[in-house]
Amino acid sequence: MDTRLALVAHDARKERMLLLARDYIGLLRECRLCSTRTTGTLLRKVLGLDVECMASGPLGGDVQLASRVISGGLDMLILLRDTQCAHPHDADINALLRICDVWNVPCATNEVTARILLFHAQVTHGMFPTPL
Ligand SMILES: O=C(CO)COP(=O)(O)O
């Protein structure tokens, strides 16, 4: 499977991201992974995953991921969002989520939806419905 998957977690969700990634480690090893810098570094160090790192979120990493969606280079986004505080780059986060909707890229912003998407990807080998 060659699914191109972006994994991003705000600080308050990084622990949950690691647990989620550990649960799906077999699937993730078969995907092409990219992340914002701090999330990606953690996934590399703690789980040994091969992750391409963009800039950190506050430094524009979400915008880099949005650009990748626009150029057709991303199949799925998991962005575990911290809803309890404002972020200096809220505009970038909203842009990334909007661009996923514009381009019909499956996108999860909470852990339960992320698990549903990963389960689906596992069962279908990364096949998502194509819009008509
Ligand atoms: O802020 C983020 C996404 O909006 C995450 O960035 P980091 O992975 O660099 O912490």
From TrEMBL:
Molecular functions (GO terms): methylglyoxal synthase activity
Domain (MGS-like) ranges: 1-132
Active site as annotated: 62
Matches recorded under SMART domains: MGS
Any Gene Ontology biological process: methylglyoxal biosynthetic process
Record-listed substrate binding positions: 10, 14, 56-57, 89
EC assignment: 4.2.3.3
Any single Gene Ontology cellular-component annotation: cytosol
Enzyme superclass (EC): lyase
InterPro entries in the cross-refs: Methylgl_synth, Methylglyoxal_synth_AS, MGS-like_dom, MGS-like_dom_sf
Catalytic activity as recorded in UniProt: dihydroxyacetone phosphate = methylglyoxal + phosphate
Keywords: Lyase
Top-rank taxon, per record: Bacteria
NCBIfam families the UniProt entry points to: PRK05234.1
Family of this protein: Belongs to the methylglyoxal synthase family.
Protein's job: Catalyzes the formation of methylglyoxal from dihydroxyacetone phosphate.
Designated name of the protein: Methylglyoxal synthase
Species: Luteibacter anthropi
